[in-house]
Design a protein that fits this description.
This protein is an alpha+beta fold. It has 3 domains: 1-165, Alpha-Beta Plaits (2-Layer Sandwich); 173-230, DNA polymerase, domain 1; 241-405, DNA polymerase, Y-family, little finger domain (Dna Ligase, domain 1, 2-Layer Sandwich), CATH 3.30.1490. It contains 15 helices and 13 strands. The strands form 3 sheets. Strands 5-6-1-7-8 form a 5-stranded mixed beta sheet. Strand 7 (137-142), helix 6 (145-155) and strand 8 form a beta-alpha-beta unit. 33% of the residues are buried.
Length: 408
């Protein structure tokens, strides 16, 4: 094929990672998204889908449909690590790839058939990912991003499908309109009102009518239905921001709890930033009240990765953002304007003790786990708790640092 695009999707990614950690979950209805009733389904196994559960569904509804399901909060550190491994495997082999999300990739492999079979190369890449990670994944190979993504959907679960250019229309024609990328629930409903139930029907529908109904999106829908998509693969680049947020089990106005939660979030996020040798130059905070009104504040700062500076900045932003004195549902923190840099100690830094402590805590977290040490004010949030059993594995020097850390 002249142009060749490979789409890779890690099947039920979060659930698959959880099953690697705990094989007893294999074959059972597993739902990742939180143990409380306030979250949404982030991922669910095919066994859970048989009960009608799907991604983005409220957990409360999922529990009604699948009361005997296994509900997990999720391990985002593990998901990020597995995604990183898959990304590195692809980066080592692919000439051009786009990371569309934590579990989805597009590769432009056009012209590779001059050297060896494109399809053979694509399936060998899929096999290499499976062999190294033991994760199930599906892949679609075709003439552009749209058709390859649809092919992946048809290949699921844990399979592969190639759609040559000569077979594109034959492949697309019988598929339900729900299989069309870009066609959300509202668009699907409108199309069905027009009697369009399959991609083939949309393929033959007058594009001028679609433009009148949907604007330029109507033409885009018609083109995709006809297998036309000229969008390029956007080369993968590292994220320009790092963020975290937490939705509480119950809305709260407990200031001690809120501040300790923010402290724990900053401490964890800044540690991850330092492990990637990055600094931030802009901090923002997000608050969502119990009535779902959301507010955010941000501030530019000199580039830093220091815990004490970031904590002070976030606490100041929190004071500015929390204006309504209404119960809070969610808090979030984002570091942007990231640059690659290591923190350099200043010769006469009056807060050098804090920097030494920060590096010592990083060393302990790297060796024993990120949740094995925390500032005492962050212990009450539930986000990071010092565990006594970790002390038996620490050196005397590390134990002194631990005591100092929980004292500040």
């Amino acid at each position: 094929m002249d142009t060749a695009f490979l789409h890779i999707d890690l099947d039920t990614f979060f659930v698959s990672v959880e099953r690697l950690k705990e094989p007893k979950l294999i074959g059972k209805p597993v739902i990742v998204g939180g143990k409380s009733n306030r979250g949404v389904v982030a991922s669910c196994s095919y066994e859970a889908r048989q009960f009608g559960v799907h991604s983005a569904m409220p957990i409360m509804l999922a529990r009604r449909l699948c009361p005997n399901g296994i509900y997990l909060s999720g391990d985002h550190d593990a998901y990020s690590e597995y995604s990183k491994v898959v990304t590195e495997i692809i980066a080592d082999r692919a000439p051009l790839f786009e990371k569309a999300s934590i579990d989805e990739f597009y590769l432009d492999v056009s012209g590779m058939d001059r050297f060896f079979g494109t399809q053979q190369w694509a399936w060998e890449l899929r096999d290499a990912i499976k062999k190294e990670t033991h994760l199930p994944l599906s892949a679609g190979l075709s003439i552009n991003k749209t058709v390859s993504k649809i092919a992946t959907g048809e290949a699921k679960p844990d399979n592969k499908l190639c759609v040559p250019q000569t077979e594109v229309k034959q492949f697309l024609t019988p598929l339900a309109i729900e299989k069309m990328p870009m066609a959300g629930p509202k668009t699907q409903s409108l199309l069905k009102d027009l009697g369009i139930n399959t991609i083939g029907m949309l393929m033959d529908f007058p594009p001028k009518v679609l433009v009148r109904l949907f604007g330029q999106n109507g033409m885009a829908l018609w083109k995709k239905a006809n297998g036309l998509d000229y969008s390029p693969v956007v080369p993968y680049s590292e994220a320009k921001s790092m963020s975290t947020e937490r939705t509480f089990g119950e809305d709260t106005a407990d200031m001690r709890f809120l501040k300790s939660t923010l402290l724990a979030m900053v401490e964890r996020l800044s540690h991850e930033m330092r492990q990637e040798n990055k600094m931030t130059g802009c901090i923002s905070i997000k608050l969502r009240y119990s009535d779902f009104e959301t507010t955010s504040h941000q501030v530019r700062i000199p580039y830093t990765s220091r815990d004490d500076v970031l904590i002070d900045t976030v606490m100041t932003l929190f004071k500015k953002a929390y204006e309504r004195r209404v119960l809070i549902r969610l808090v979030g923190i984002r570091f942007t304007h990231l640059v690659h840099a290591n923190y350099q100690m200043q010769l006469f830094d009056p807060k050098a003790k804090n920097v030494h402590l920060m590096f010592a805590m990083d060393a302990i977290k790297k060796r024993y786990g990120i949740d094995k040490i925390a500032r005492v004010n962050g212990m009450f949030s539930g986000g990071a708790i010092v565990e006594e059993r970790a002390t038996s594995f620490m050196t005397k020097r590390e134990e002194r640092v631990r005591v100092l850390a929980v004292a500040i």
